[in-house]
Amino acid sequence: MSAAGAPDFFYREAIRLGYVARSAFKLLQMQNKYKLITQGSAILDLGCAPGAWLQVACQSLGALKNGGSVVGIDLKKVKVPSTHCDSRVQTVCADVLNLPKQRIKALSPQEKGFKVVLSDMCPLVSGIASKDAALSTELGMRALGVAVGKAAMDHIVDSSSSSCDCSDNIDDGVLQMGGSIIIKILESEDVREFNRICKPLFRKTSWLRPKATRPSSREIYLICQGLQKT
After folding, report:
1. Distance in angstroms (rounded) separating the CA atoms of residues 177 and 179
2. Which residues does the Swiss-Prot or TrEMBL record annotate as the active site (predicted)?
3. 184 classed as catalytic
4. Which of 19, 148, 153, 189 would bridge with 173, disulfide CB 3.0–4.6 Å?
5. Pairing verdict, β 175-186 and 202-208
6. What pTM was estimated for this model as a whole?
7. Strand 175-186 vs strand 114-119: parallel, antiparallel, or unpaired?
8. What average pLDDT does the structure give for the chain?
9. How far is CA 23 from the centre of its chain?
């Protein structure tokens, strides 16, 4: 493990600080840099297993008295971690890509939607780089569709190079106006096209490869801030 260098540090730190996975430090870096999660915010975590991002999201809400909520959805049944989480955190076992958006939005306070959507979802990898990248991009597009709904579909349809079938995104998304989304995808030639689709939807888009990312990984995160009317 010593040859891995920095990744060992994040693994040890996760254990020391009570995080269920080293991926906690990825969201911690993004939160420290962009300050997406604020007191009282409603947070949706897509693909929340094993729960490290639930922990960071709840921490970022501040004290329990400040309010806010964190909803995690995953194909696996995820137990809310006992460390760094409180009663504001809940998990749902379901395929979020097949859930009606109104059902997802109903999980938010007053059913008004979410201030921040987090997507650390990853497809089942085949080991074929081009195929895995394409699957990752498609999953990222689907996450975007959950967040912004018909607006995303319209921009994707206008994109001649997109291969994603987002015809189910015919209703409004679950992200509040002015809200933000973090989407993980694998680096490929599709990254530029993905950003082109997102830029008209948001006030600002940025790419980040967190320090906690393993050296062998091609993961990269798109941070989209300030959903705006299109």
Report:
1. 5
2. 184 (proton acceptor)
3. yes
4. 148
5. unpaired
6. 0.89
7. parallel
8. 89
9. 12
